[in-house]
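Quick question, first post here. What does this chain look like in 3D?
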Amino acid sequence: MYAIIATGGKQYKVAEGDIVRVEKLNVAEGDQITFDQVLMLGGDETVIGNPTVAGAKVAATVTANGKADKVIVYKYKRKTGYHKKNGHRQFFTEVKIDSISK
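> Answer (accepted):
Ran it through. Tokens below.
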């Protein structure tokens, strides 16, 4: 069984036992978290939400909080001498999916 959840403005396809990096959540490591915005449940029979599946929840445990690798942003305009280099590291929360319930 798998589910499609929405968190942090993005959608993720998850199954039990998966480890997923989502946008930063204000939750400490080792805590339990529940995702209520389940857009779809798949498996033997598919259930599509309108916009979410009523009563469906995904339980997960936070395994880590951190920052992703640096992404270099380089802006350049030819013939004008303009160039600007900038870096960005996005915060993330790593969660392990424990259970999916209907």
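Residues 2-65+94-101 form one domain.
The chain has a mean pLDDT of 95.
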